[in-house]
Amino acid sequence: MLELRPNCECCDRDLPPESGEARICSFECTSCVSCAQTVLMGICPNCGGELVARPRRPAGKLASNPASTERIFKPGGCAKSALVEQASGA
């Protein structure tokens, strides 16, 4: 089951479970749509996988299957990693 992490790992923006602004990779690294599109170019800086829209859990299911409250924030922000540059051909 997806953790539905509560924030963007790059800019620390809040991303509640009902947000349509969250993007994740297959490892659930989480970014906001702004960081995912403008800085990361759709590529996860941690694993090199693609960032896609995070599914939203129905509100009725959140009570028995709550979203994660653990915040993961990379102090370096969204610095373009070697993985992103490699994937984009830079």
Automatic annotation (TrEMBL):
Keywords carried by this UniProt record: Plasmid
* Recorded superkingdom: Bacteria
InterPro entries, from UniProt?
Answer: DUF1272
State what protein this is by name: Urease-associated protein
